[in-house]
Amino acid sequence: MASAMTPQPARASKNAARLDALLAEIRACRICRDTPSGPALPHEPRPVLRASATARLLIAGQAPGVRVHQSGAPFTDPSGDRLRQWMDVDVDTFYDASRISIVPMGFCFPGWDAKKGDLPPRSECRAHWHDRLFAALPAIETILVVGAYARDYHFTRLGLDWSRKETLTTTVRRWREFQHSTPRIIPLPHPSWRNSGWLKANRWFESELLPVLRREVLQAVGKRGGDSCMPN
Prior knowledge:
The chain is an alpha/beta fold and 232 residues long. The protein has one domain (43-221): Uracil-DNA Glycosylase, subunit E, CATH 3.40.470.10. The protein is 42% helix and 7% strand.
């Protein structure tokens, strides 16, 4: 007798189609410009993210900087160079959305503050899109939580034990506690070169955490290939 259940390939195809439709909505989003919850975005929106229903690794970042806003691809800047070095992956692997999803807390470059520092991620992205998007990424096994804004959202979403008063350094030092969560969580400082002083002051990050990070990445995405060019 024929099964009444939807065959798995057909179900996967349907889920991928739903995700593609959701990503198209996000990439066309103008909420922070046209109907913002606070001051309007001071420039045209350009949401930057990559996601697929098959990726087992998620990089949960903060928000694009101005270089990423211009390129339209995530981490096409010195922070991306450092993050790829931490992960020990080449450019082709990093930008292979079938293996790695890259979803920041703010999809668009938020603009600069008075001191020319990047503003925080826009709150509209989290309010309107994030819960729906992560519900559509069922294959994620490991999340690299980059920075405090990503930590606040994902740790809360997954019911992990943490306090908003906790510094990011403290959270990263507790990385072993999150190895048995589902999905697994690896908290990371932001790979900005402005954090070089933090890395020098916290040598344990390189000696203790990076080897574990690289093993997790290798398990999720496979072998490292040859370096290639940045995506257009």
